[in-house]
Amino acid sequence: MNLGKPPVVEVSVAFWFEASSAAPDWGEEQAVRFLDQFQADYPETEVQAEQRVQVQKIPRKGASLQTTHVPIAFRAYPADRSRYLLTAKDYLQCIFLRSTENDYPGFQALKAESLNKFEEYVRFYRPTKVTGFALTYVDLVRIPTVDKRATLSEYFTICEDPDEATFGVAGFVRKSFKTVPPGSQDILSFEIYNLVKAASQDEGAIPFRMEWSLQGFKGLAVDPSVIGERLESAHRFLLTCFERCFKPKGWALFDPQDGSQVLK
Amino acid sequence: MIAFDASQFADVPPAFMVMEDTSQNRRGGTIGAISDVTKRVVDEAVVGETSYQLRRPVTLTFYPFVAGSLGELIQEPNPLGHDEYNVIGRGVTYDVALADWSARLHTRLQTLLAKRDWERTAEEQEEMAALELLIDVPAYQKSTPLRMRQIGTVARRRPMPDRVRWEDGSYEPVGLDQMPAEFAAFHAGQRFEAIVVRTPGTRKLLRVVHVQPLPRLAAATVEEWSELPPTTKAPTLPWDKIRFAKD
Question: Which residue in A81, A102, A196 is closest to B77 by CB distance?
Fold first, then answer.
């Protein structure tokens, strides 16, 4: 699939692990040491902390509130924020954002990076097993408008327009579902909804955010070759889903370069 | 077709079965927001020294390279409506686009605030109502210091100037730490023009950002006073015939 105007803005691979009972509790020190190994590629670090407030009773004085911040996730990134490496308790995620005007580094680059960090995670934390993985795509699709309206059924196979005479004009559309793909034990999550732009900045199109995620929980192993194969098949499946949710008029929006047609 | 047999999802961790408005559950269960690297929840818009508190936090998502080399910062749809008055920010990074988004909001609000209610068109009234749903305008007005031009005279210097008489006849103590450095050189009786920053509610003096010495006013002579036309010579006009000069 070679698209002149690819809609992808973000792709990520996430892994869930089961920690070994002998492993020390996950915490700030370990997470920072883990991310520090990749400082050359991911020099900046951010932390997400959860605020916890405890009521401490003081005899004859009532009570006081004690606030503590507990780190729950760390993420490292280069200065241009074109990619992220995120770690939380029993969790690792590699995120690529589109970093040039017409392309993103591509699935093979993301797969190589995520498998490399997967191996590093396993070496560092020694988890007993991989409990899940997810491959997620975020796309931004602009549906052209005529007289400030778009007919979704002309572009999508999965979005119908509500009958205007009965229901009125839709101002906001959201559709989401979870399925078990045929012949699979994975879970597909899909969501599409339109974003809203200011009338003054409207360029004759309604932007839609599409998010695809394939999550696998079975048949996994702490083995990069097994995980790599699952990522490959997840990638192929998500591409098929992506193509099949567009009609030819919708597919043409992406300016297919290699003459690729919508899958029949 | 929807299957009501949930057994196919039996082995899926519960956190992944929740259908939420956001992608947080799909992305990573409890880690949520930090996993969503293109989204941030924003509760104020800041432009220079001006800050607008939002009535409720909004989620702004950055979509890189969707407008040529620029990305767009788009607000998630607002359940309260008035989405047609949303603004988008543009820039090469999230932070640049956020600054652009804030500047656009700032420009639109200040343009509308510069007009009185009755000066706004119907569309502007509607836009103002939409902006007021997003921005806490009374809080902005209460928290934003007033800047005004005032003319005064140093009323006391013993040995430092510490009291000012403003043109309206009021006296006000001033501290040198509130004043520009050159004010310390002013002698009693020095007339000056100042840019004064005051609290919006109480008009309490916060600081003076600029002082410009002015020449002393010459006292009018008896001849000058007698040259002024008496009110008895003023023309009489009915109220409804009075014409005011337009801006």
Answer: A196
Q: Please, which residues bridge with residue A246 across strands?
A: A156
Contacts of residue A36, Cβ cutoff 8 Å, sequence gap at least 6: none
Closest Cα of chain B to A58: distance in Å? 33
Q: Which residue of A has its CA nearest to B13?
A: A217
Q: Chain B residue with minimal CA distance to A191?
A: B23
Question: ipTM greater than 0.85, yes or no?
Answer: no
- How far apart are the C-alpha atoms of A37 and A39, rounded to whole Å? 6
Within an 8 Å CB–CB cutoff, is residue A11 touching chain B? Answer: no
Residue with tokens 């992406």: A254
Residues in chain A: 264
Which amino acid would we find at residue A82?
S
Burial group, residue B137, by CB count within 10 angstroms (0-12, 13-18, 19+): middle
pTM of the model: 0.75
Which residues are B81's β-sheet partners? none
Q: Are residues A158 and A175 in contact, defined by beta-carbon separation less than 8 angstroms?
A: yes
CB of A84 within 8 Å of a chain B CB? The answer is yes
Helix, strand or coil, per DSSP, at residue B191: strand
* B122-131 residue pLDDT tens: 989 988 988 8
Parallel/antiparallel/unpaired status of strands B146-157 and A187-194? unpaired
CA distances from B116 to B121, B125, B204 (A): 10, 10, 25
Scanning every residue of chain A, which has its alpha carbon at the shortest distance from the alpha carbon of B20?
A: A176
pLDDT tens-digit map of A188-241: 999 998 887 655 555 688 888 999 999 998 888 888 899 999 999 999 999 999
Tell me the C-alpha distance between B71 and A101, whole Å: 9
Contacts with A215 from chain B: Cβ below 8 Å: 12, 16, 26
Token readout for B196 is 């004064």
How many CB atoms are located within 10 Å of the residue A195 CB?
21
Residue B113 to chain A, least CA–CA distance (Å): 19
